[in-house]
Amino acid sequence: MAAVNQSDVLILGGGMMGAATAFFLRQRGVSVTLLERGLCGQQASGVNFGNVRRQGRFLPQLPLANRSRLLWSRLPELLGEDVEFLPTGHLRVAYRPEHLAMMEEYRDGSRNYGLELEIIGGNAARDRYPWLSQEVLGGSFSVEDGHANPRLVAPAFARAAKRDGARIVENCDVVAIECEATGFRLESAGGEVWRAPVLQVSAGAWGGRIAASFGEAVPIIARGPQMGVTEPVPYALHPVLGVTTKTVGEVVYLRQVTRGNIVFGGTGHGPADLDTRRAKVMPEITLQQFSQLRRMVPAIGALRIIRTWSGVEGYLRDDRPVMGPSGKVSGLFYAFGFCGHGFQLGPGVGEVMAELIATGSTTTPLAPFHIGRFA
Amino acid sequence: MAAPRVIVVGAGPAGTRAAEVLVAAGLRPVVIDEAADNGGQIYRRQPAGFRRRAEELYGTEAGRARAVHGAFSALRGRIEHWPQSLAWQLRDGTLQVERGGRAHRLDFDRIILATGATDRLLPIPGWTVPGTFSLGAAQIALKAQACAIGRRVIFLGSGPLLYLVAAQYVKAGAQVAAVLDTAPAAARRAALPLMAVRPSLLIKGAALLWRLKRAGVPVHHGVAPLRIEGDSRVSGLVFRDAAGREQRLEGDAVGMGWHLRAESQLADLAGCTFAFDEVSRQWLPRIDADGRSSVDGVYLAGDGVRLAGADAAELGGKLAARAVLQDLGLPPPAGIDAEQLRRSLARMERFRQGLAVAFPWPGDIIAKLSDDTLVCRCEAITAGTLRRSATALEAPEMNRAKAFTRVGMGRCQGRFCGIAGAEILAAARGEPMQAAGRIRSAAPVKPLAVAIEVETP
Amino acid sequence: MMGGAGPLLQRLDELVRPSVTLAVDGQVVTALEGDTVLTAVLLHGAALRQSEFGDGPRAGFCLMGACQDCWVWTEQGTRLRACSTPVTAGLRIVTREVPWPRLG
C-alpha cells in the first residue's frame, strides 16, 4: 500500500497553481500526486474575476506574467479543451490627471520588461469605445491581455494532468504532514498515507498554516473577492476594463463574456473564513460597485445583476505571493497566496515550479516572492 | 427597551396569519411582499377595476380567500406593509430590500419567511416555445388577467393543480384539449388510505374530475410527454399513452406543472440547514414542529418549507409567529392552541404524503430525456451538456455541474431547472437524486437593478 | 387558428375597462387598464423577446415573477418584467431587438 502512494512529488492543494504544476511536472516525466481537500479549483482559482492581465502588476513579476501569457495562447493545445480564453485587450481608465500620470510612469517601466502599453486620451478612448463615460480622462491599453473562464481552468489542468499520468486525489483532507529521512509523509483524515521526497504547498489562503508548521510563518490573511454578474446583453464591451486609482472605493473591474453577461468586481473585499471555507459577499459592496460600474460605462445602469459570489483568497502583507523553495526545509516548495491576482499567472506558475522542482533552477526570476523575505 | 423588530416576508396565507398573531401581541411587524397587494399566489387578487366575484376567482376556496384578505385588511395601520418590495439578501440579522428603486437595509430581531412556492417543472423538448406556460401561470392568467393562455389548451403534469386549473378553464369558457397526467391511474388508489385524512379534499377532487368529464375533456393517465411542437408558437403536443401508443394533440398552448417547488432562497442565504424531503423529492429547510429553522431568529412557514398547501400555510404562519413571541419572552397569544395546530398540520402532512403517492414525480421520464432537450431555460443548457459534465468532467453534484456548464446559472437561479437537473445528473452517474445535491442560492434572490438608488450615509 | 401570427392569449372576461395605448415593435396596440405588459403584448403577438442564446422566441413562463423569462426592453432602453408590470399609456416595447448599449 505504501508503495502505491509513493511518488516523486506531492502537491498539496488542487487550485490552479497545484493543478498546473502537476500538469507541467508530467510534461517533464516526473511522477506526481496531487491531494485536494475538496474539488480542484473550487476556491480562489474558481471564483476569481478571470482576468488575464499583465498591466498594472508589480514590475518584477512581469517575466513570470509574460511566460504565463505565452502559455495562455497554447492552453487549448496543451489541455485539449477550451477554457474560454479571449485575448481581447485590457483597458484601464483614469478619472484624474494624477492617475493618468501614474499610468504613463507604469508604461515607461513596463517597456523594460517587454510589455508595450498604449496610453490614450479620453476622447480617443471614447472614439474607440463609445460606451465609455465622459468622466474617463484617459486610459492605458494592453493589447494582448484578455480574460478566461476561471471555473474551467484549474479543473481542466487537473484533468489534463491526470490524462498524462498524474494522480489527482480529490476530497482528501490532509491532517498530518511530517518530514522523514526520505522526504515527506502526508496522512489524510481517512487514514491513507502518501510519501514523496518533494512537497509543493499550493494551498491558497490555507498555505500560511502549512508554512507556519514548517517554521516559516508569513503575514497572510484570508479575504473574499466581491463578484457579480449581469444578465446577458449583446456583446459590446470587448476589452477587459479596470481603473487606475489610489482610492479602493473607486476600483472596479469588468469584462463581458461573448454570451453577453458582464462579470464585475471591486471596491473592496469581504471577510473569508478558513475553517468554514466560506467567504461573504457584502451587500454594501455590491451596491457600491453599481455606482462605479455606471460611472465608467453608463449603459450598464440599464441592466440587472443576476448573481453575486465570493470565495477564499490569501493576501500577503506586501501584496506578493509566496513562490519558490522553502528557506528552511529541503525538498519543500511553495506557491500560494497570490493576493487576488494569481489567475493570469497560473499556467506560468505551474511551468516555472515544474522547472524548478525538476531541474533545481528556473530561468524566471522568483527572488521577490521567496518566503525568506518574511523571516 | 425598544419593541423588537420582526419582519415577515410574504403576504400570502402564511405571512398574513403570522402578521395577525404578531399584531395581536402588540408588535408592529414589517410585512414585505413583491406583489402590489396581499394574498400570495394562491389567493392573488385581481387588479383594481376587475369585477368578478371571489367565487369566480377562487371557486370552492372563495371563503378561505375572503378570510385571508379580510384578515390582512384588518391589519392595515397596525403593520408596516411594504408591497412591491424585493427582499434580495438575508444574513446576520439584516435583510436587504429593494423598494421603489431604492435600496433599504432592514435590521431585525426575528424574521418569518413565508415565501411560498412555484410550480415544479420538468423539461420536455419544446417547453420554451411560446404558448407553453406553467400550470400556475395558466391559473394566474385566468385569475388576475381574465385571460386563457390559448384557444385550445393542453394541460400536462401531475397533482391536484393539474385538474383544478383544467376545470377552472372549462368553467371560464376556454377550450381544453386534454388533461395529460403522468401518474398512472393505479397510483391514486394506492394513495387513498393516506389521503382519507382530508375527505373534503377528496370530494373536491372528485368534483373536478366530474366537471372535466361532463365537459368532454379527455383525461389520460400514465402518459409520458415526448415533445411540444411548434417553432415560433405551440402547435401541438406528442405523448405516449399508458398503452405505449404515440399520440398527437392539436393545441396552441400547454400548461404544465408537477406539484410545487419551495421558494427557499432567503432561508438558504440566511444559512439555514436543508434536508432532502423524500415526499416532495426536493431539498427543504429544516424546521422544528413550529417553524424554527436551524438559524437563531429565522422562522419558516407555508409552502416555502412545508409544501402542504394554503390551509397548512395559515396554520404554519400562526405557529411560527407564536414561536417568535415565545422566543422573545413575550406572553403567548390568546386563542392559539399550539397543540391543536400541530395536530392539524400533522394530518395535512399525511395528506401531502398521499398526494405524493397519487401523483408521483416522474423522475424516470426526466432521466430518459433526449440529449438535445433544453433543461436550463435561462442559459439554454441541454440535457446532453449536463450529462457530459457528470461523466467526462466528473461533476458529482449540481454546483459543480453549474460551474462547468452554466446550468442553473441564469436569471432564475435554477428555480426551474435545478430539480430536474439533479435528476439528470444523478441518473448519468447512476446515483439517487439526492446525491446530486441542490444549487446553492446566491444574492440577489431575483434580478436587481444596477440603477438602484442607495442612501449615502 | 393554429400557428402563424396572431395573439397567444385569449381574453375571456373583464372586457369593460378603460383602454390604454402602447406600442409594440412600432405598432400601436390597445390594451385595457389592469393588463400586465405581458398580457398586453401577448394579446397581439406571440413573443416578448428573443432568447439571447439563439434558441428562438420567448413569451414568459411562470407569470409570478420567478422564472425571469419575460423581461422585455423598451425603445428607451429600459427593462421591464412583463408579467409583474402593469401596462401604462405610452409604453414602447420592443420584442425583436435589444437596444443596448445606449450611448450618451
UniProtKB/TrEMBL annotation, chain B:
Source organism: Teichococcus deserti
Keywords from the UniProt entry: Oxidoreductase
Domain BFD-like [2Fe-2S]-binding, chain residue ranges per copy: 374-426
CDD domains, per the entry: GlpA-like_Fer2_BFD-like
Name of the protein this chain belongs to: FAD/NAD(P)-binding oxidoreductase
Keyword Oxidoreductase belongs to the record: yes
GO molecular function: oxidoreductase activity
InterPro entries: BFD-like_2Fe2S-bd_dom (IPR007419), BFD-like_2Fe2S-bd_dom_sf (IPR041854), FAD/NAD-bd_sf (IPR036188), FAD/NAD-binding_dom (IPR023753), Metab_Enz_Cyan_OpOx_G3PDH (IPR051691), Opine_Oxase_asu/HCN_bsu (IPR017224)
Entry superkingdom: Bacteria
Domain FAD/NAD(P)-binding stretches: 5-307
Record carries keyword Amino-acid biosynthesis: no
